[in-house]
Write a structure and sequence with these properties.
Blueprint lengths: L1 E8 L10 H16 L2 E9 L9 H11 L5 E4 L2 H4 L3 H12 L5 E3 L4 E2 L5 H31 L11 E5 L5 E5 L3
Parallel strand pairs: 1-2, 1-3, 3-4
Antiparallel strand pairs: 4-5, 6-7
Helix pairs in contact: 4-5
Length: 175
């Protein structure tokens, strides 16, 4: 069985999650050696999985699996593969149709004959995380507005700072 290795970090920003992909790759390559997995190709993507059809390399990987070039996916965790119900459904359907014969994570393997319910629950949790994160972010931003603060970064001519109690404040930029 041939596998594709898929590593993803959520942000395209270079200063956020800098080590994330490299760390995922190192751990997964070691696991591939330990499990004697035949890795056909490696995909590294710095894109959010919150929306479907937002990750060109994920799409390419899925097309190659559909063509039969690979039968398995090695990824850090299910939430690296999917955080939306469309991609989750596609992965689950391809598992059930046995186009994907194995999704191997660092902790477990998902096969067509078992773990379908567990895959659904874990991909649902990944999706719920995004929903909850959005609600929490919106609540925090609204809280800032209610206190008379700006809900985002300081505008041009001002700086984000902290007061004596460690709360975020905006001050005039001395320059």
């Amino acid at each position: 069985m041939k596998y594709v290795l898929y590593a993803r970090k959520s942000s395209e920003s270079e200063d956020r999650q800098v080590q994330s992909i490299e760390d995922q790759l190192n751990c997964m390559k070691k696991l591939a050696v330990d499990l004697k997995l035949d890795i056909l190709d490696v995909y590294e993507e710095s894109r959010s999985a919150k929306q479907p059809n937002n990750r060109p390399l994920f799409t390419e990987m899925m097309e190659r699996i559909e063509k039969g070039e690979a039968q398995g996916i090695l990824c850090w965790a299910i939430n690296r593969l999917t955080r939306n119900p469309v991609d989750s459904g596609t992965l689950q359907w391809m598992l059930q149709k046995e186009l994907i014969q194995s999704i191997q994570t660092m902790e477990k393997e998902y096969k067509p004959s078992d773990n379908v319910l567990l895959f659904s629950v874990e991909s649902g949790q990944a999706n719920q995380f995004i929903i909850d994160l959005r609600k929490s972010t919106m609540r925090g931003m609204q809280g800032r507005v209610d206190k008379g603060w700006m809900p985002n970064m300081a505008p041009l001519g001002y700086l984000n700072s902290k007061d004596d109690e460690g709360r975020g404040i905006i001050i005039p930029d001395p320059e």
